[in-house]
Amino acid sequence: MAPKVERFVSPGKGNGLRATASIRRGELVYSADPLAACVSLKQSKNTCHHCFSRHETLLRCSQCKMAHYCNITCQKQAWPVHKSECKCLRSILPRIPTDSVRLAARIIFALGSSEELYSLEEHESHLSSMSEQKKEGLSQLASMLQLYLQQELPTLDQASSSLPPSCRDPLCLMGKVICNCFTISDGELQEIGVGLYPSLSLLNHDCGPNCVMVFEGTKLHLRAVKDIKSSDELTVSYIDSLELVDVRRKQLEEQYHFTCTCHRCNSRDKDVIMLSGEEAAWRLFKDAMPRLDGLRAESNWQELLNLCKRSLSTAGDDVPDENLYKLKMMDAAVDACVQLGLWGEALAFGLRTLPVYRLYFPDPHPVHGVQLMRVGKLQHYLEHVTDALDTFRQAFEILKVTHGDTHPLTYELKMKMEECRCELNQSQ
């Protein structure tokens, strides 16, 4: 473990991590590989199941027909982990288990000697505080895990002797996985998989955290986004902070079984702004959200753009851009325009989101940095080179803190800035 952090008991929260020395903003606090990880089902066809990089064309495992790889090298390197999983996947075709079930199985296959501050046995399952409805759902996942493992391990008692006693109960194991796994994202913060990082499960939540987690493949980097004093607790945000307090609290209570009492939640400092404008008008945006999410899931980009334009035309003048639901509508419009190749419209919508992102994701926040980079790419493509360079510079000031100078996304950003400088020099 990195020498600047240690495990401790956080008052009112249980286990936690704290600094043992001063940590500067932008400093890499800790890096970790997962005990186990798997690509999300919805990303399985365009993400390598070994290195977690995205590609349009991938090799497919000829046996299970689910795992995909960049090339033969990745496929061979993945085989020791995939070997047992492959048999399990073939045994239940055409069914495919959920991400959490596949991750739980990979944890069982991976268990061996590991040096962690927080053992799998110590991870909370929160079974005692779950509602009966949630327990029923978890029981179904536990049954699927047993069915999935039947080819390799007819009972969990036959697992390695290193499997902790509490984890031999499928229900308890699934509870530990659901409550402690992390979503693995690419450099642009898009979900690509799930993984269990035992020591970093000690990190507690805050809606205004002092650290962020970014990934390179499956390697997790914990970076400080504020100056941290010795003995200060290290915190991250478990959820998307772009929500109302009651929504955030409900999500945290349902998934992680605690009520958030951080400063942002107690002060409700952004709720009034998020609901600004005429309620009758912004409710049109809110009521359209389920339809918007459905169209995005279907990749029905033209109809999604039509919905956004209709909504913004009908209610837009009575609702400021800072309204939460209007912002989500504009974000969806950017996505749709990019997918449809409507670059000018994408840029117009994207530029409107930037001041609002700055408001809700104070610098340095990776979400704001990634949005700036996205807008900069649109400006560059449309040959607004001076504007693009300025936007890329703003993004770089954020990402060098949140991602670090050596992260592939930061490197790409530096190359984009250099391209802009060269183009501007040639035009003079």
From TrEMBL:
Q: Which GO terms describe its molecular function?
A: histone H3K4 trimethyltransferase activity; zinc ion binding
Q: What is its EC number?
A: 2.1.1.354
The protein's name is [histone H3]-lysine(4) N-trimethyltransferase
**Superkingdom of this protein's organism:** Eukaryota
> Single GO cellular component annotation?
nucleus
Q: Which InterPro entries match?
A: H3K4_H4K5_MeTrfase, SET_dom, SET_dom_sf, TPR-like_helical_dom_sf, Znf_MYND
Q: What keywords are assigned to this protein?
A: Metal-binding, Methyltransferase, S-adenosyl-L-methionine, Transferase, Zinc, Zinc-finger
- PANTHER family given in the database record: HISTONE-LYSINE N-METHYLTRANSFERASE SMYD, HISTONE-LYSINE N-METHYLTRANSFERASE SMYD3
